[in-house]
Design goal:
It is a single chain. By secondary structure, the chain is of the alpha+beta class. The protein folds into 2 domains: about 230 residues, no CATH class; about 140 residues, Histidine kinase-like ATPase, C-terminal domain (Heat Shock Protein 90), CATH 3.30.565. It has 12 helices and 5 strands. It has a 5-stranded mixed sheet, with helices on one face. α2 packs antiparallel against α3, α3 packs across α4 and α4 packs antiparallel against α6.
C-alpha cells in the first residue's frame, strides 16, 4: 500500500512541477490571482484524474501521453501568454526532459543493481521510492534551468519554426516512448538500453541547441530592424526640432518689428488699430508656437510636444490627462512606450474622418498606468488580432508593439489592447520600484 501511495504522490508532484514550470516560463495573462489559482488547481486535478483512471484500467499508455500533452497545451492556451506554437514547444520540451530523466535514471539503476529495465520499473521497495525522489529532484532542477533560460533570453520564433520544432519534438518523444516500451517488454540488454537512452538524450540536446540558434538569429534580425526604425524616428525628431527652432527664431526676429508697429499706432493715437494688430499677432503666436506639456519630466514633455505638433499637422485632436508630478521611472523605457503607442494611434487616426486621441497617465497602486485611446470607425481587432503593421514596407515597420512588449515584460507589467465603443484602447501597466 505504501508503495502505491508513493506512486500517487510522485504523479501529483510531477503534475504540480509541470504546471509551475509552465506558469513561470510563459506567465499568466489573467490578472486576478484567484482565477489563476483556481484554474491551475482545476487543470491539475483533471490531469491527475486522467492518469489515475488510465493506470487503474491499464489502458494504452500512448493515449495517456497524448491526453496529458493536450491537457497542458489547453492550460497554456487558456491561462498563459505567448502564441500557441511557442506554448507547444515549451510543453513538449518539458515532456522530452521528463522522458530523458526517467530513462537515464532507469538505465543507471539497472547498471548499479544488475536488474533488467523491466525489473527496475516493477520494483516495489524503498529503492523504487528513492528512484522516484531522485527523478523528481532532477526534473525540478532541469525545468528551473529551462525556465530561467527562456525568461532571460526572451526567445523569439517565427510560426514556421515553432511548428517545425514542435513536430520534431513530438516525433522524438513518441519514438522514445515506443523504444522504452520495447525495452521493457523484450528485456533488451543493458548496453543496448544505455545506447538508446544516450542517443535520445543527444537528439533532444541537439534539437534544443538548434532551437536556441533559431531564436538568437531571429532576435538579432529583429533588433537590427528595430534599430533601423529607431534611427528613422530619431531623424524625424531631429527634423521636427530644427523646424521648431527655426519657427522660434523667426518669431523672435519679427518681434522687434511688431513692437515698432504697435508703438507707431499708439503714438498716432490709433488705439483700435493697435489692439487689432496685437490680436492678429497673438492669434499667429497661438498657431505657430508649440503647446508645451508641463510635467516635471523633461523627456515626457519633449515626446508629447513633438507628438502634439504631429497631431496638429494632421488635424488630430490630442487630449492629455496627465499628472504634473511624474513618478521616478526609467525615462528611456517610458519614452519607448509613449512614443510607440502614440505613433500607432496617430498613424491610425490619419485614416479616420473623426480624429481624436486621448492620453491618460496615472498611478494605480504600485503601477504606472498609461492609457491611449484613438477613435475608430470600424473594428481593428476583428481583422487584425495580432496588430500587424499595415505599412507597405513591413520588414522595416511593425516593431513598435514588440518594443512596448519587451519594456512591459522588463518592468513586470501588463499590457492589453481592446475596443470600447468607437475607441481603440492601448492599456499598459508598468510596475514602479519604490525604495
Amino acid at each position: 500500500m505504501i508503495y502505491t501511495i508513493a506512486e500517487w504522490v510522485a504523479t501529483i508532484s510531477e503534475s504540480v512541477i509541470l504546471f509551475v514550470f509552465l506558469a513561470a516560463t510563459l506567465s499568466y495573462k489573467i490578472e486576478a490571482p484567484s482565477l489563476r489559482i483556481m484554474g491551475t488547481i482545476l487543470f491539475c486535478i483533471v490531469q491527475c484524474t486522467v492518469v489515475f483512471i488510465f493506470n487503474y484500467f491499464y489502458l494504452f499508455e500512448g493515449v495517456l501521453i497524448v491526453l496529458n500533452v493536450l491537457i497542458y497545451i489547453a492550460f497554456c492556451y487558456i491561462f498563459l501568454r505567448q502564441n500557441f506554437w511557442y506554448q507547444c514547444i515549451v510543453v513538449l520540451l518539458a515532456f522530452s526532459c521528463l522522458f530523458c530523466i526517467n530513462s537515464a535514471v532507469a538505465v543507471s539503476a539497472s547498471s548499479v543493481t544488475g536488474l533488467t529495465s523491466t525489473e527496475v520499473f516493477a520494483l516495489r521497495n524503498p529503492v523504487r521510492i528513492f528512484l522516484l525522489f531522485i527523478t523528481k529532484v532532477m526534473f525540478v532542477f532541469a525545468l528551473s534551468l529551462f525556465s530561467s533560460f527562456f525568461r532571460k533570453k526572451k526567445l523569439l520564433f517565427h510560426p514556421v519554426q515553432c511548428i517545425s520544432m514542435a513536430f520534431i519534438f513530438l516525433i522524438t518523444f513518441i519514438v522514445g516512448v515506443v523504444l522504452q516500451r520495447i525495452q521493457v517488454e523484450n528485456n533488451i540488454a543493458s548496453w543496448e538500453s544505455t545506447a538508446i537512452v544516450i542517443c535520445l538524450i543527444s537528439i533532444n540536446c541537439l534539437l534544443f541547441f538548434i532551437l536556441f540558434q533559431f531564436a538568437t538569429q531571429n532576435r538579432m534580425k529583429m533588433n537590427h530592424a528595430i534599430l533601423k526604425v529607431q534611427m528613422e524616428n530619431e531623424q524625424k525628431k531631429l527634423q521636427d526640432s530644427v523646424r521648431w527652432s527655426m519657427e522660434v527664431e523667426t518669431l523672435r526676429h519679427d518681434l522687434k518689428n511688431h513692437l515698432f508697429c504697435i508703438s507707431e499706432y499708439i503714438k498716432s493715437q490709433k488705439q483700435q488699430e493697435a489692439l487689432h494688430y496685437i490680436e492678429q499677432i497673438t492669434g499667429k503666436l497661438q498657431k505657430d508656437i508649440p503647446h508645451h506639456i508641463l510635467t516635471d519630466h523633461p523627456a515626457v514633455n519633449a515626446i508629447l510636444d513633438l507628438k502634439r505638433m504631429e497631431c496638429e499637422e494632421h488635424l488630430i485632436h490630442l487630449k492629455c490627462f496627465i499628472m504634473e508630478k511624474m513618478p521616478d521611472f526609467n525615462e528611456v523605457d517610458l519614452c519607448v512606450v509613449l512614443s510607440n503607442l502614440l505613433d500607432n494611434a496617430i498613424e491610425a487616426e490619419k485614416k479616420e474622418q473623426k480624429k481624436e486621441i486621448r492620453l491618460s497617465i496615472s498611478i494605480v497602486g504600485n503601477y504606472l498606468h498609461i492609457t491611449i485611446q484613438n477613435m475608430i470607425s470600424e473594428s481593428v481587432l476583428q481583422n487584425n488580432k495580432t496588430l500587424k503593421t499595415s505599412k507597405s514596407n513591413a520588414k522595416l515597420h511593425g516593431f513598435g508593439i514588440q518594443s512596448v512588449t519587451d519594456t512591459v515584460q522588463k518592468h513586470d507589467g501588463m499590457m492589453d489592447f481592446y475596443e470600447e465603443g468607437c475607441w481603440f484602447v492601448a492599456d499598459v501597466m508598468l510596475k514602479l520600484n519604490y525604495k
